[in-house]
Amino acid sequence: MNAPPSPGHRPLRIDAHHHLWNPATRPHEWLAGEEMAPIRRRFTEADLRAAAASAGVGRTVLVQVLPDLGETAEFLALAAGSPLIAGVVGWVDLTAPDVADVLAGLRSGPGGRFLVGVRHLVQGEPDPRWLVRPDVLAGLRAVRDAGLVYDLLTLPHQMPAALKAVRAVPDLLFVLDHLSKPDVAGGSLRPWADRIGALAERPNVVAKLSGLVTEGDWATWTVDDLRPYAHVALEVFGPGRLMVGSDWPVCLLAADYARVFATAEELLSGCTADETAQVFGGTASRVYGLG
């Protein structure tokens, strides 16, 4: 194992997955409930800069929160004026017949050059086969034709359909968010491990080492709780197809920004310096075309 580079010579760190929101301007129904009270407030780009500095992060990818074109347009305009946000994963209605036109419209608007990908909240779809509906597959092909990537936000029971979608559009690059949310709190690995292994066999899939702290017990989780899932991800994807994301501010339910990145460092402690640099920045830069 190689020693990590000193902080003064650390390669550029990229947070490949975070959010921003303001519940006062748009309804965020998912923030209802007492357990969400700690994050039921506005989180701004200035807040992000302060958090990112705590972990030595120099660039970020801002990911959609709501199925709302207005939010995506605002995120793109924000990125255009931010020295930190290097890319935006936005939202479009994949089932609409005009996906290509909508994407073109977003790209022609303020900050349109920062659009690097598209995501839909598949985890909330009641149909476990939503991703393989003909209209959704047509939308995914429009994303491919626009030269963008597609972020997969799925739960373990939706992974079989995700695999079929990945096979159906083999020339679209898919990014699996949060490792498809394994059951960290329950400590079970299967069938999740088998399903993520099948996804990793497809060369057009990469994954985010993100969101794990909130899949464990928010108050008592430890690095050892997360280690089996990170180990599986490293084994099946390898460092060149993994990227670290904070999932901030959602992560604040279980850990602050700096602790999330410190945890990632521990989970990657067996990797070489070059491998760690890939997970902490190189993969995200390449996949999202951040330059």
UniProtKB/TrEMBL annotation:
InterPro entries: Amidohydro-rel (IPR006680), Metal_Hydrolase (IPR032466), Metallo-dep_Lactonases (IPR052350). Coiled coil: none annotated. Pfam families: Amidohydro_2 (PF04909). Residues 14-290 form the Amidohydrolase-related domain. Belongs to the metallo-dependent hydrolases superfamily. This is Amidohydrolase family protein. It comes from Streptomyces eurythermus. The lineage of its organism: Bacteria, Bacillati, Actinomycetota, Actinomycetes, Kitasatosporales.
